[in-house]
Amino acid sequence: xxxxxEDGTVRLANGLVITASLTQDEFLAHPASRTVTRRDRGAPSxxxxxxxxxxVDGRPLSLGLxxxxxxxxxxxxxxxxxxxxxxxxxSYSDTVEAATKDFHDRLxxxxxxxxxxxxxxxxxxxxxxxxxxxxxxxxxxxxxxVRSFHDPRSLGTQITVLYGNRLADAVER
Length: 173
Known about the structure:
By secondary structure, the protein is of the alpha+beta class. Helices cover about 20% and strands about 35% of the residues.
């Protein structure tokens, strides 16, 4: 998986390319859309599609593509460090979430730092220091922002690629 610093394009090994101009119809026409779970977000114009992503450092990534009508608003990326089975409040762990946040932060550092193209991403030991959960990490770009954060209300620790002010603009409508 890569996130292009120039325009925010997310590229996956399965061939899916998510650009800031991707429409919902274009996504649904892609073969990768056959493996999605659709989640309506309370209003007909808000739809999120969950799908499996790449494997990074031997760990599975999943993605969430959030659309407002036809316009892509954001891409959520998360690694699952819980192992097989559904993540629920019963299986929730602050230390696992801290390790997840550490993984996400290190992945973004790897993606956006200058290094040899042959360097592969690998983390030998992840931190379980829960203090990391209180801090959001942001990478601002001309086209938007990439953010790594923990949301205790939703069981979620994720990377979010936000395209410009689309989220705020869509919420105001």
